[in-house]
Amino acid sequence: MESRPPNLPLHSSKPLPRRIFNRLFASLYSAAISALLYHHATTLLRPTTPPFAALSMLTADIILAFMWLNSQAFRINPVVSEPFPENLHHFLNSPEDFPALDVFICTADPSKEPPMGVAATALSAMAYDYPTEKLSVYVSDDGASELTLFALMEAAEFGKEWLPFCKENRVMERCPEAYFGSNSVILNSETRDIKEMYDNMKTRVKDVVERGYIGDEYKSSSKATKTFGKWDKDFTIQDHPPVIHIVLQSSEDKDAARCSMPNLIYVSRQKRHATPHHFKAGALNALVRVSALMTNAPIFLTLDCDMISNDPSTPHKMLCYFMDSSLKSKLAYVQFPVRFNGLNKADIYASEMTRPYHINPVGMNGLLGPDYFGTGTFFNRRAFYGGPSSMIDPELPELNPDYVVNKPINHQFTLELSHQVAMCDYEKHTKWGFKIGFRYGSLVEDFYTGFLLHCDGWKSVFCNPRRAAFLSEMPISLDDVVSQTKRWSVGLLEVSLSKYSPLTYGARYIGPLMAHCYSYYAFGPFWSFPLLVYSFLPQTAMLNNICVFPKVRSYTIRLGYLCFTTSLTEFWTLTKKNYNHF
Predict the structure, then answer these.
(1) Alpha-carbon distance 461 to 330, whole Å?
(2) Model's pTM, two decimal places?
(3) Which of 152-187 are b and which e, b meaning 16 or more Cβ less than 10 Å from the residue's Cβ?
(4) pLDDT for 1
């Protein structure tokens, strides 16, 4: 292996020059806020102003001031990171030099997350420009649906034609649905044949989904009968044994070009009515354990089932950070932004959530790194076993991140132990979910896990390439949006009001700036109070001829106007369309 030339870096970090202006602006704005709070405090002493109105306005503005203070932590030292994958070949000369990579895809409800979509996401990950013998895809099905397994088995067969087609034709959209719906399709006999195969696969999957069960015509072999026979009359979503099925095995399955296929494993952990399952965090921990026994890749990627790969070279960009000797010893994860399909160009409803997924992570990048988004994240497996200098040994030596797997994934011992660690009561009297793995204790396990990893001494990196690494789907119904927002709010309050609050616990371990960054999200649900106050109180006060704001001739309101104008300027600068490289 050749050493990497010193003049060819794997990545760069560029502080934004705007940070100086941000600091000056924060100082000016702080003075305006102080003046406004002073006005509210003196208003409480006026007999002409009802105490309830004055106290409500004061409380609302204190909360707004606190949230503004938190937001300024993102602007103190914003840093843009850029990978240089073209230099990676100087460090990794052959496929054997690449580290193994596991991909975790999570799904939970086949009625809301169609099996065909899960299969498309799996295909897009299987088609990465990565050595196939080093790539494994694990699908966690918390919905325990035979329909999802059937879709994956169909996708595996189609993938034997799709993967060589993508690599031979240098297809960028490795998700077949995205490719055939794009303008880059070149219609020739080969493309038509592949599209016909894909349409036939979709027809078969749609057929079983509409039925709600796997028909006998799809159980022609004894192997298929045995596989789907696990879904008997006693099998329910909330009460079933663990199901682990090897759909593809790299050492045995070949594609149409006689090249090895990636491993593809279906995992549905055991569920029991009386045993807590800890939602997505529990599913991910089951995947961490099962994958440790089968492949134990030092790096794994977490993806939502509706988040397709949009760039086959994404793992190469990730390796630009994990292969840096000066960074990798404390690097927990590399976070890619979440981008969405189907949004109009203006994004008038702010559905892209530019601030949390694109702007704020750049600000955290200059500190300890961005928070964990829950998807599109490449993890260092070692990060889930204690801090960088204080490793916590798991209860089984086979679960150790340094354990060398020397048995095939279909070995009887491996399969038996995999079923054991996927049992619902396996985590009892262990450190899983509290000191090891993804953390329990909040409905927002992604935010909570990333926060505690930073508190343990790990760092992270935000990588935002020009071409989106992943594309996701937005909730399309109001019920889904309300349900998701409620879950986020409850989960964030579970963190902010616990002993692990960013303001107290975080300030001790990650410093005040990172603590304020995490507080911006953790205390986000408190926005509701000032919004409620400003929605009703000023109008009610005006109708009753009550003054709750400073007079126009007051120095306070003049300073407020100046700050409001500069705020609009700052907001426009941050959210303009070229946010990739602001």
Answers:
(1) 11
(2) 0.92
(3) bbbbbebbbbbbbbbbeeebbbbbbbbbeeeeeeee
(4) 43
Query: Which are the contacts of 122, defined by CB distance < 8 A and separation ≥ 6?
Result: 105, 137, 139, 152, 155, 264
Task: Quote the CA–CA distance of 23 and 72 in Å, as a whole number.
Answer: 8
Cβ burial of 466 (10 Å; 0-12, 13-18, 19+) is exposed
Residues 214, 230: contact at Cβ < 8 Å? no
Question: Is residue 214 within 8 Å of 150, Cβ to Cβ?
Answer: yes
List residues with catalytic annotation: 142, 446
Nearest to 61 by CA among 69, 71, 72, 51: 69
pLDDT attached to residue 482: 81
Whether 66 has a pLDDT exceeding 60, the answer reads yes
CA atoms of 570 and 582, how far apart (whole Å): 12
pLDDT reported for residue 215 = 86
Question: What are 96's two structure tokens?
Answer: 């054997």
3-state DSSP call for residue 222?
A: helix
Query: Which pLDDT band holds residue 280 (cuts at 50, 70, 90)?
Result: very high
- Cβ burial, residue 87 (10 Å; 0-12/13-18/19+): middle
Query: How far is the C-alpha of 527 from the C-alpha of 518, rounded, in Å?
Result: 15
| Contact of 265 with 294, CB cutoff 8 Å | yes
Q: State mean pLDDT over 89-117.
A: 93
